[in-house]
Amino acid sequence: MIHSPETHKNLLARIPRVTGSDLREWFSRLESGPSFMRCGEWATWLADEHDLPHAYAAAIVHEYEVRRRTRLNSA
User: What is the pTM of this model?
Assistant: First the structure.
């Protein structure tokens, strides 16, 4: 699921309130979870494993990937 930049920003802002965890905690769960080849698989796992709405899971995974690519490109 692809969101507009504004929708993505709004979803990210609501994640701590809606999920009870901040992005850093979600990123840690992704890193310690199973490995998947596709972001969609990761989002589905995150939604199912942690009982999240899929839109929030997809936003978490998308943001994780954006930040991971930024880290890799700056190294």
Answer: 0.89
